[in-house]
């Protein structure tokens, strides 16, 4: 049932072009054909559905070896984002502040957990581990956003080099 609820939300966002902020639990329930009490049996609210779905959409990304994801984040993630339904969700919510914020929030949360696993593999890293993991993830997002905002069409290799430049003092592997 959880997957059906998520799929209905995803279809409303991506196929029907509804923004997250315009979605309603009632509408999702109607689409799935369930009573709202069934919805609340599985999820607390629509944000919980979004979090669940983003976790599902990130599964293929998490199959990329963790060392690769944090040593060459742009090269390793390029193919994933080119073919991922997550990219479609991101694009569908581009102009919805609430939807964009939640995608970023939950994607970063997953990536921080994974960055902590990466740090355990490093021979040394700057403590505290949670803060270092957050810094690695924030740097990925910052470099990505900067390249888009500045209209810089750098290769993924160049973006990886920039990321390494800004994080080299945080890890050594």
From TrEMBL:
Q: Per its UniProt entry, which superkingdom is the organism in? A: Bacteria
- Pfam (any one): TetR_N
Query: Which key words tag this protein in UniProt?
Result: DNA-binding
Could you tell me which InterPro entries the record lists for this protein? Homeodomain-like_sf (IPR009057), HTH_TetR (IPR001647)
Q: Where is the HTH tetR-type domain?
A: 17-51
Q: What is this protein called?
A: TetR/AcrR family transcriptional regulator
């Amino acid at each position: 049932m959880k997957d059906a609820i998520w799929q209905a939300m995803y279809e409303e966002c991506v196929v029907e072009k509804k923004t997250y902020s315009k979605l309603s639990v009632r509408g999702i329930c109607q689409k799935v054909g369930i009573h709202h009490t069934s919805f609340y049996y599985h999820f607390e609210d629509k944000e919980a559905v979004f979090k669940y779905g983003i976790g599902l959409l990130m599964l293929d990304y998490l199959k990329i070896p963790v060392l690769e994801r944090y040593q060459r984040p742009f090269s390793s993630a390029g193919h994933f984002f080119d073919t991922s339904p997550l990219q479609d969700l991101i694009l569908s919510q581009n102009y919805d502040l609430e939807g964009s914020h939640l995608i970023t929030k939950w994607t970063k949360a997953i990536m921080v957990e994974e960055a902590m696993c990466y740090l355990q593999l490093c021979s040394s890293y700057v403590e505290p581990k949670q803060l270092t993991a957050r810094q690695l993830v924030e740097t990925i997002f910052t470099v990505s956003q900067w390249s888009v905002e500045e209209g810089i069409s750098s290769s993924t290799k160049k973006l990886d080099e920039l990321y390494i430049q800004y994080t080299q003092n945080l890890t050594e592997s």
